[in-house]
Amino acid sequence: MNQPLAIAPIADAWNHFHAISHVGHIADDQDYEASIQLTDALISEGAMEETHPQHLLFMTLNDLVYAYDQRHNAMSAPQSAQVLRFLMEQHGLKLAQLPEIGRQSEVSEILAGQRSLTAHHIRNLSARFGINPNAFF
User: Fold this and answer.
1) Which residues form the signal peptide (predicted)?
2) Which fold does the domain 77-136 belong to in CATH?
3) What is the pLDDT of residues 20-37, one digit of tens each?
4) What does each C-alpha distance from 43 to 26, 60, 109, 114, 126 come to in angstroms?
5) pTM (predicted TM-score)
6) Domain ranges (residues) in the chain
């Protein structure tokens, strides 16, 4: 027989995590920025690699940021995908060489029009390539 799930220890752990990270449901720009800061720190630590101990945390944050961006900041997929494809060709980049976006599969989905670049992606790509963010619109 299945044991009932003990919610109290999970809630305690969640409350502790949320108190020190300020990460949870992204309801506004302040929550969004806290999630972006932690995501950027995790990228700096190498958490994009699937073998990294914090990879699941990184992926969870990525999903939260992506969901918020889709609700509030979704960009035109065809235009931004064309710009991204052009930049990759000009710089001889492969799908796995864009940490500003994430995993190779995410880059592939963006190029295929199945996913949109987020404001966070565009900000980082613009900084990397020295272009105006408006180029993606």
Assistant:
1) none
2) 434 Repressor (Amino-terminal Domain) (1.10.260)
3) 988 889 998 888 888 888
4) 19, 13, 20, 24, 17
5) 0.55
6) 27-72, 77-136
